[in-house]
Design brief:
With 64 residues, chain A is mainly α. Chain A is built from 2 helices and 2 strands, in the order αββα. Classes of the chains: A mainly alpha (64), B mainly alpha (903). The interface between A and B is large, with 36 and 41 residues.
Chain lengths: 64, 903
């Protein structure tokens, strides 16, 4: 039987990490603002962009 | 000023451009040079961003703050589950599945009933969503014209109707150009990808203009918002909305796969599984970019139009217009048009395929009319049905738009559609991973979920529009309190979407599981379940072929294919198939199980798996395999797989064992070679003293007149050489014993200091004779080690006699040092002789290796003392090595571990 590919497993794991990071109650943690921009806004877009970046690194790596 | 004609011309030009892109894509596909690259595929997924995103997100952000983001975070997380999507693509490619209805129907025994049910749910759920797109285009036209003082009626015609007609024509031209065996539309995908770029650019342009042109940047906008308590609320993450937040992430995550247009783009239009790797991050990146300016636009609009009652859904257009940036407003309009047309085109194509294959075909196949036309080529009829279905769906959308009018906000409709298609999730994912799911269970689950959705979400939305009385929402059905549509069984305090999702999923999953476990699948269901769930495993073909038994003729099956695919296409596919089976001409193909399977899959691509099953059964005399038999065959297939896995495992074991044996063999050869070397060295070493003994004895024997002094000298040499011979033989025997492990050891507690002192005493005479100083640094009561006393003495004496051999007679000095250190005793025998090079330090422990130059000097030992000493020390768990530099004397050091302290 073929093992599930490591790339797919890594991406799924990334998705699982994303769920608690992008839902309540963690998203209420950032408070205040940075350079006039609310921390919640920065947090959501920052975590989101981070997930995309890691997904890109994992998906585009040649070592499959 | 924007004239109506100008806008109409611009829209027409844009649609023509789209048309050209699609045409180009199709032409390339026909030439076999697909333009669908990973990037195009990823961008085409952005058909997810409809006008609901383009206009509606801003509207939603004005009331819900950041919660609009959930609609885009859900898909991001869902797409990361690449494994599931790859499995769906693999299944769909293998069985030529062309729609989500077909997928579900095929899994549950190619059931026409299920296919129809899914189609009905999809049409009812999605038509309002299409209406929403028409409404968005109409509303954006209104905004453009109102601002420039034009009437909203165009050429005396309803502009929305015109848009619907144009979209229908466009969709028909590209969606049903020909009846492709896999229902792939590369030109359309290219056009959709192009549109995705247009809407992103348009939205970003408006966002940048408003944020940096009308206001002082992001910081400025957010500061204005925090200043007002009304707007500041939008920036807070409200704990009470936690449930809604999670619900929306779940809902949108499901929608990204289950919406008919998303299934079409992700699964059916996929050319290459590896494209997913790009989509998995590029599409979320697209979503992120298109959302950055949503909240700033919402705040900007609320600040700018404070209290003027401008509809927030139109901020994207009204903000640039308010500043007189008409060109930008036009770009925004084109962006919105892109979003709407993209969605409508793909959605209607997906729905028309479902309506044609899963509603129209089953009815037509039963009707007498089609039986009469049995000889006719039906591929034209199929295309006709699809075109009619496209027109019909758009007409329905238009009617819904007319009827609903302004009754319900844009945002609501989108989520109602999402909740409708979410009902497919349990049967779809269950079907892919759970073999026990049955047709009855799937139908029950879908029905239950659909009814709950209808009652708690769709009908209340009708009631809000005033089409039906809202008694069932306010007082409950028949006045029964716990039947209130949006507080079912008293479950209140949730928003309506979460409420609907919770109850519908409860009903759906519950019914699916309970009914599945209490019903028996028929033979087709059982085999389909096996095929879907185990799609990623190898060796499926055998079972596929054995799951069908019957009789047919090649001609009958070919005729069937020609009727539905058209003669040219059918022959082309047959030829390609014949070549894979090694026949030059398809007419030579045997009419066996594999061929019938091929024909059925081919047909499924055109008319859906359920209808294909019925048609194939009509020309083939099938032997009905009972459930038992099917399960036996599947069992057998599973067993064969298990055996082959076992064999594979055994083979790997054998390979490992072979490798081990080979290694052992290598080692043995090496040992054998070493033994040969040893023997030839030993014989050489033995021959040297023997030769001198023999030569001297012969001299004495042959010449009796030898002088007494010579005679004495000769005899002395003979005695010495004989002693050396004896020593050599003793040591060789000793060495052999040590190496073979047969040496006798009497291990006990030994005072190592005492051993050192005794050895020094016993060799004292030798040292004094040569005039070498010997001193010791040894504790009075020495460390105690576990060892064999005699053997340790042997090592000590060997090291000391070596040392005395190599130091010079005058000024020579040898010192012995015994000291306990961490866990071991360290004994050093140091001399001030000529010393050794680093290389010599290593080789000196090899057998028959002697210190000094053996070529010129007379050998002073046997060359076995050090190897034996090393063996002994290592036997006690210690080490023996030499440290030296040329000219600086040498130290021979050995260690013996101290016994572990009693715990």
């Amino acid at each position: 039987m073929k093992r599930a590919s490591p790339t797919r497993q890594r991406l799924s794991a990334l998705g699982l990490i994303g769920v608690p990071l992008l839902t309540y109650p963690l998203i209420t943690l950032p408070e205040g603002s940075l350079a006039g921009i609310p921390a919640a806004y920065l947090y959501l877009f920052g975590v989101w962009a981070g997930l995309i970046l890691i997904a890109a690194l994992v998906a585009e790596s040649k070592g499959k | 000023m924007l004239s109506g004609w100008f806008v109409a011309l611009l829209s027409a030009a844009y649609l023509a451009l789209l048309f050209a892109v699609a045409r180009f894509g199709d032409a390339r596909a026909d030439n076999g040079r697909s333009i669908i690259s990973a990037n195009v595929y990823a961008l085409s997924l952005a058909v997810y961003c409809t006008s609901w995103t383009f206009f509606g997100s801003v509207g939603r952000a004005t009331s819900g703050g950041l919660s609009f983001l959930t609609i885009y975070i859900g898909p991001t997380l869902m797409l990361l589950c690449v494994g599931t999507i790859v499995k769906m693509i693999r299944i769909s490619k293998t069985y030529r599945i062309t729609s989500i209805a077909d997928f579900i129907a095929s899994r549950y025994g190619k059931s026409q009933m299920l296919a129809g049910l899914v189609t009905v749910i999809a049409v009812i759920g999605v038509v309002p969503y299409i209406a929403l797109q028409l409404k968005a285009v109409a509303a954006s036209l209104d905004v453009l014209f109102e601002q420039s003082g034009h009437a909203e009626i165009f050429w005396g015609l309803d502009s929305t109707f015109l848009i619907a007609v144009i979209l229908a024509l466009f969709t028909i031209l590209f969606g049903t150009r020909h009846l492709d065996a896999t229902e792939r539309h590369e030109g359309m995908v290219a056009a959709i990808a192009f549109e995705s770029v247009v809407k992103l650019v348009a939205f970003m342009a408006v966002g940048l203009f408003v944020t940096y042109g009308m206001f002082g940047g992001l910081g400025d906008l957010f500061q204005r918002a925090t200043a007002s308590p009304e707007l500041g609320r939008l920036l807070q993450m409200d704990e009470t909305r936690a449930g809604t937040w999670t619900t929306l992430i779940l809902l949108s995550g499901l929608a990204i796969i289950l919406l008919p247009r998303q299934f079409q783009i992700i699964v059916v239009e996929n050319v290459d599984e590896s494209h997913l790797k790009r989509a998995v991050w590029l599409f979320p990146l697209y979503l992120l970019l298109i959302n950055i300016f949503v909240l700033p636009l919402a705040i900007g609009g609320l600040v700018f139009f404070d209290g003027q009652g401008v509809n927030p859904d139109t901020f994207v257009l009204t903000l640039p217009l308010a500043r007189g940036a008409e060109a930008l407003a036009l770009l925004a309009f084109i962006g919105g048009l892109s979003a709407a047309t993209g969605m409508v085109i793909v959605e209607t194509i997906a729905l028309s395929t479902m309506v044609c294959n899963d509603l129209a075909m089953p009815l037509l196949l039963r009707s007498r009319w089609l039986q009469l036309a049995k000889r006719q080529d039906l591929s034209g009829l199929l295309i006709g049905i699809r075109r009619a279905a496209i027109a019909l769906i758009l007409l329905l959308g238009y009617i819904y738009f007319r009827a609903a009018g302004e009754a319900y906000a844009l945002v609501g409709i989108g989520l109602i559609s999402f909740s409708a298609v979410a009902q497919f999730a349990p049967v779809l994912f269950g079907g892919m991973y759970w073999k026990q799911g049955t047709r009855a269970g799937a139908a029950a689950g879908l029905m239950a979920g659909f009814i709950v959705w209808l009652y708690t979400l769709l009908l209340p939305s009708f009631a809000k529009s005033g089409w039906i009385g809202n008694g069932f929402v306010e007082q409950g059905l028949f006045g029964v309190e716990w039947l209130k549509a949006q507080a079912l069984f008293g479950l209140s305090g949730m928003d309506e979407i979460s409420h609907c999702l919770w109850w519908s999923m409860f009903a759906n999953i519950g019914s699916y599981i309970v009914v599945s476990l209490n019903s028996t699948p028929d033979a087709v269901e059982a085999s389909q379940a096996e095929r879907f769930v185990d799609i990623m495993r190898h060796g499926r073909r055998d079972a596929d072929a054995r799951l069908w038994r019957g009789k047919t003729s090649l001609g009958a099956v070919v005729e069937l294919l020609e009727r539905f695919l058209g003669v040219a296409r059918a022959r082309q596919q047959l030829q390609a198939y014949a070549e894979t089976r090694g026949h030059a001409d398809w007419r030579e193909l045997p009419a066996d199980a594999e061929f019938v399977h091929f024909a059925e899959v081919e047909l499924a691509g055109a008319i859906g798996s359920a209808s294909a099953r019925v048609m194939v059964a009509s020309v083939v005399q099938e032997e009905d395999l009972g459930l038992e038999e099917v399960l036996d065959i599947l069992d057998e297939a599973t067993q064969v797989r298990a055996y082959s896995r076992e064999l594979e495992f055994k083979q790997r074991e054998l390979e490992a064992a072979t490798a081990e044996l080979r290694e052992a063999n290598e080692r043995l050869r090496e040992l054998d070679r070493m033994k040969d070397d040893f023997i030839s060295t030993v014989t050489h070493e033995l021959r040297t003293p023997l030769t001198s003994i023999r030569a001297l004895s012969e001299m004495l024997h042959e010449d009796p007149r030898t002088e007494l002094t010579d005679r004495k000298r000769f005899l002395g040499i003979i005695v010495n050489e004989a002693e050396r011979l004896t020593r050599l033989i003793n040591q060789i025997l000793d060495m052999a014993k040590l190496e073979s492990g047969r040496a006798e050891w009497t291990t006990g507690e030994v005072d190592i200091g005492e051993v050192a002192r005794e050895s020094m005493d016993s060799l004292g005479q030798l040292f004094r004779e040569k005039g070498v100083a010997l001193d010791g640094d040894i504790p009075a009561h020495g460390p105690l080690v576990l060892a064999d006393r005699d053997r340790l003495t042997q090592v000590m004496i060997n090291l000391l006699s070596n040392a005395v051999k190599f130091v010079s007679g005058d000024g020579g000095r040898v010192s012995v040092k015994v000291a306990a250190e961490a866990g071991r005793v360290r004994v050093v025998v140091a001399d001030n002789g000529p010393g050794l090079t680093a290389e010599e330090c290593a080789v000196i422990f090899e057998k028959f290796r002697q210190g000094g130059n053996t070529m010129t000097d007379k050998p002073q030992g046997t060359g076995l003392g050090l190897p034996i000493s090393r063996q002994i020390v290592e036997y006690f768990g210690g080490n023996l090595w030499a440290e030296s530099r040329p000219g600086e004397g040498a130290s021979f050091i050995f260690t013996v571990p101290l016994p572990a302290p009693e715990a």
